[in-house]
């Protein structure tokens, strides 16, 4: 939650200020239509999922029951999207994505134990991504998880989600010794919460997507190193409050 609060704060300050200086624009409207893009919503959503999952996995030990809960949560999440129910604090998105989290928990051992050659991993990942791309193009779904917008076809949503996740997992098996990609992978949280701020600044001078992407890739290196070195508390690398386990009589 600390990275979410800190890195979302610039956008909150901007949105509140914008609403104050523009009569007729409410703070909620300013928040929903922010000119400063952020990706911190993902952290709040993941936090909500982890809180709910903690109690589910503590109270329920039967995998079949956990699977049923996962299926029901995806169905409820899709219904909330279908009827355009307001997604306050990304709760609707959390309900939908809880299914992915729980199924990932059930299959984690099998997934982590995948043992394939580099060539096999690349072929499987390529086939999965091509198939996903074909399904996506043929159905043209409007999928936007931030607002829990999932289109009108439940099975397309499920297929594209799981095929994409599996493709990334298999692909990661093939490139798990690449030091450059390992650096970006280990610092994905920092990149998630900072890159859109830098993109907003870069687009003032450049609009070419390749230039923007290239500059962001380079900028993220010093940004990650500086935050890890001088502000580890902001990304959860160090605890702000240390609780002592010892007790006195």
Low-confidence stretches: none
Report the span from N to C terminus: 34 Å
Compute the average pLDDT: 89
Order of helices and strands: HHHHHHEEHHHH
Helix content: over 70%
Strand-helix topology:
Layout: H1 2-21, H2 27-32, H3 41-59, H4 63-82, H5 91-112, H6 118-139, E1 143-144, E2 149-150, H7 154-174, H8 179-186, H9 188-202, H10 209-230
Antiparallel strand pairs: 1-2
Helix pairs in contact: 3-5, 4-5, 6-7, 9-10
List keywords for this structure.
single chain, 249 residues, mainly alpha
Describe it for me?
This protein is mainly α and 249 residues long. Helix content is 70%, strand content 2%. Strands 1-2 form a two-stranded antiparallel sheet. Strand 1 and strand 2 (149-150) form a beta hairpin. Helix 3 (41-59) packs across helix 5 (91-112), helix 4 runs antiparallel to helix 5 and helix 9 crosses helix 10 (209-230). The protein is globular, with a radius of gyration of 21 Å. The mean pLDDT is 89.
């Amino acid at each position: 939650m600390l990275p979410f609060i800190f890195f979302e704060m610039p956008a909150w300050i901007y949105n509140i200020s914008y609403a104050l200086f523009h009569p007729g624009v409410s703070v909620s409207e300013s928040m929903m239509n922010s000119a400063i893009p952020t990706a911190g919503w993902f952290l709040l959503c993941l936090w909500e999922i982890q809180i709910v999952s903690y109690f589910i996995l503590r109270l329920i030990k039967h995998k079949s029951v956990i699977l049923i809960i996962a299926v029901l949560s995806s169905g409820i999440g899709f219904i909330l999207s279908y009827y355009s129910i307001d997604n306050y604090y990304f709760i609707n998105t959390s309900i939908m994505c809880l299914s992915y989290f729980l199924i990932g928990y059930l299959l984690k051992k099998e997934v982590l134990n995948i043992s394939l050659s580099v060539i096999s991993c690349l072929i499987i990942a390529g086939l999965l991504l091509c198939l996903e791309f074909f399904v996506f193009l043929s159905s043209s779904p409007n999928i936007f998880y931030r607002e829990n917008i999932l289109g009108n076809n439940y099975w397309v949503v499920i297929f594209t989600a799981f095929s994409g996740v599996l493709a990334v997992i298999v692909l990661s098996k093939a490139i798990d010794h690449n030091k450059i990609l390992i650096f970006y992978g280990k610092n994905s949280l920092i990149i998630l919460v900072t890159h859109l701020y830098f993109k907003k600044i870069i687009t003032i001078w450049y609009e070419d997507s390749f230039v923007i992407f290239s500059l962001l890739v380079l900028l993220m290196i010093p940004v990650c190193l500086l935050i890890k070195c001088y502000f580890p508390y902001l990304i959860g690398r160090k605890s702000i409050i240390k609780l002592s386990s010892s007790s006195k009589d």
